[in-house]
Amino acid sequence: MRVVGYIREAPSLEEGETAFAQSERIRRWAADSGHHLIATCQDGRDPTQPLGRDGYRALLDIARSGNADAMVVAGLDVLSPDKITQEIMLDNLRGLGLTIVSTNEPDHGELLDVPDDHTRLVVRDVIAKVGMYRKEFAEPAVAEVAPMTEFTGSDVIVQLMPHSTYRDESAAQTARPNA
């Protein structure tokens, strides 16, 4: 399986694992599992920049290209400390065709189809219902187009009416394309 790793440094040194530790956990998992680690995308801590998401955007681009089968993280908290945001991100990644893997064993129950955490279960249900709603109501319906009739060659009259005087018949202009 072709996997891409995602690493995100915590905003401060006191929170979470270092990028190096996350990277080593991902590399070790890939080697032990016999999977091919094709890339590692990283969002780092730069004192001159806010903690950005360029690495995550690169991960999404790889997923969209179809060159990866799975994404592996050292822990789900790398995606976000917030479970709701994690579930939104996981849904997006799954929608792009990726299997999600965490090297953190306590996360394994959270990645099941029916997660151990009730918050995650409710969020997944809401995400599914939003998708169903958008599919049924928010996306424009595709109308069937009637077949065009054959052109008879007769003149077509188009009457252009200026908006400010559209009620005044004398202000109407007539255009004849074959005149």
Task: Please give a structural write-up.
The chain has 179 residues and is α/β, with parallel strands linked by helices. The longest helix has 21 residues, at 118-138. Helix 1 (19-33) links the parallel strand 1 (2-8) and strand 2. It contains 4 helices and 6 strands; from the N terminus they run E-H-E-H-E-H-E-H-E-E. Helix 3 (83-95) crosses helix 4 (118-138). The strands form 2 sheets. The chain has a 4-stranded parallel sheet, sandwiched between helices. The protein has a two-stranded antiparallel sheet with strand order 5-6. The model has no long low-confidence stretch (mean pLDDT 82).
Q: Tell me the number of helical segments per DSSP (H or I, 4 or more residues long).
A: 4
| N-to-C order of helices and strands | EHEHEHEHEE
Rounded mean pLDDT is: 82
Helix content: 25-40%
With strands numbered from the N-terminus, the spatial order across the biggest sheet is 2-1-3-4
Uncertain residue segments: none
The N- to C-terminal Cα distance equals: 68 Å
Structural class: alpha/beta
Any key phrases for this structure?
179 residues, 4-stranded parallel sheet, two-stranded antiparallel ribbon
